[in-house]
Amino acid sequence: MSRFLDNCLKQKVTFTLEMGDRPTKATFFHLQEVTYRISVFETFQSLYRAAKTMAYTNPIEHYKMFDSFVTFLVSERRYESQNPDIQSKRATAYNTMLSVVADYRKKYSSYVLKNPCDYIDDISSTMNAFLSVWLAHRNTYIEL
Fold it and tell me: How many helices (H) and strands (E) are present in the chain, helices listed first?
């Protein structure tokens, strides 16, 4: 996760420099997208850090925070493409993302906490799985 975030931060600097005096529409959209992705990844980093504490005190509350943020991301703006191939890729990526969400919700609906460290490892794996499909979905809109 942090390696991807580092790459995004470098891209943000590049796009910011490209904006210069006469920004192009493409540079503006790339800058907006990379800034958005940075905020999402930073939020997941914060959720992971919180898991390290909350797993010992209130893992259910932590899971609710995580799932609420994912719900927001799943419902984020989507728009149609005139190109049927692109539209098909978007639909596939979106359905894959929904499948990952359904799988983890099923897992955590009957989750039994045996050891707080297990929850930290499990939620970390869940976050990484979700982020990878979310990123694949975002790339069907704007490839960076």
Answer: 5, 0
